[in-house]
Design a protein that fits this description.
Blueprint lengths: L5 E12 L2 E12 L3 E5 L6 H8 L7 E6 L2 E2 L7 H7 E4 L11 H11 L5 H14 L15 H13 L5 E5 L7 H16 L3 E5 L3 H7 L2 E6 L2 E6 L1 H7 L3 H10 L1
Parallel strand pairs: 3-8, 3-9, 6-7, 7-8
Antiparallel strand pairs: 1-2, 1-4, 4-5, 9-10
Bound molecules: adenosine-5'-diphosphate and magnesium ion.
The site of adenosine-5'-diphosphate (ADP) has 11 residues, from strand 2 and helix 1.
């Protein structure tokens, strides 16, 4: 594990919204092919941390390195940086007026300037991968929530990201649809995708995570393997949180 390259390195990250200090001296390291699950109460800063990793939020202080290189929002082309970190949200945000395949090829064609035929070919392969090979030409509204979220994952993968960020990807789904999305995420993890996942699915965290990070009020309270966190948490705050969610 330790000989793998570091994919994400966050050092002393701080972020405030006005007078609200949302992320406090956050340190985090994710190596290539690792899956890191972020857990914590609502409002603890999980989404803000993911959004900082994707530069949808501008940090106040601290540094973020992606694949060994510090990202400087003032100098670097953030569209290129974002293309390397795919993001999947709770609400899938598919374009309703576009078919599934049109949704998937949008960014590769218009941001990456990929040839349309190539984007369609790659898009169809990805649809096969998420189990929706037959849905290329339908509109999102005709799909279930679980299917739409799988399209959203395929859409993010179409940019060939090195890192995938998931923000509560199953929280908006009916319980019977959660499994199919988690299966797609597990398959990605098995293929070696580097992933940071905010989720309340503790079973997924146990099974897939290399590391579980517990955030409370913007601070990283504890980081450990799933076994360490779920069976032998060291911090009172971690134990208290887990006693509520497990
Ligand atoms: P989580 O994802 O863990 O629920 P968030 O990162 O969404 O937490 O939010 C952390 C805190 O920051 C919350 O108190 C939230 O209300 C606040 N917050 C998040 N985004 C904004 C924003 N754009 N403007 C002001 N406050 C925000
Ligand atoms: Mg959130």
């Amino acid at each position: 594990m330790s000989d793998k390259n570091i994919a994400i390195k966050v050092n002393q990250l701080n972020k405030s919204f006005g007078s609200l200090h949302v992320l406090k001296d956050v340190d985090l390291e994710v190596r290539e092919s690792e899956v890191v699950v972020l857990i914590g109460a609502s409002g603890s800063g999980k989404s803000t941390l993911l959004r900082c990793l994707n530069f949808l939020e501008v940090k106040e202080s601290g540094t973020i390195h992606l694949e060994g290189k510090e990202v400087d929002p003032k100098k670097d082309d953030l569209n290129k940086v974002r293309a390397r970190t795919g993001m999947v949200f709770q609400h899938f945000n598919l374009f309703p007026h576009m078919t599934v395949i049109e949704n998937i090829i949008e960014a590769p064609v218009y941001v990456k300037k990929m040839k349309k035929e190539e984007a369609i070919k790659i898009g169809k392969e990805l649809l096969g991968k998420v189990g929706l090979a037959d849905k290329a030409d339908v509109y999102p509204r005709t799909l279930s929530g679980g299917q739409q979220q799988r399209v959203a994952i395929a859409r993010a993968l179409a940019m060939k990201p090195q890192i995938m960020l998931f923000d509560e990807p199953t929280s908006g789904l009916d319980p019977e649809l959660v499994g199919e999305v988690l299966e797609v995420m597990k398959a990605l993890a098995r293929e070696g995708m580097t992933m940071v996942v905010v989720t309340h699915e503790m079973g997924f965290a146990r099974e897939v995570a290399d590391w579980v990070v517990y955030l409370d009020q913007g601070s990283v309270v504890e980081i450990g393997s799933p076994e360490q966190i779920f069976e032998d948490a060291q911090e009172e705050r971690t134990k208290e949180f887990l006693s509520k969610v497990l």
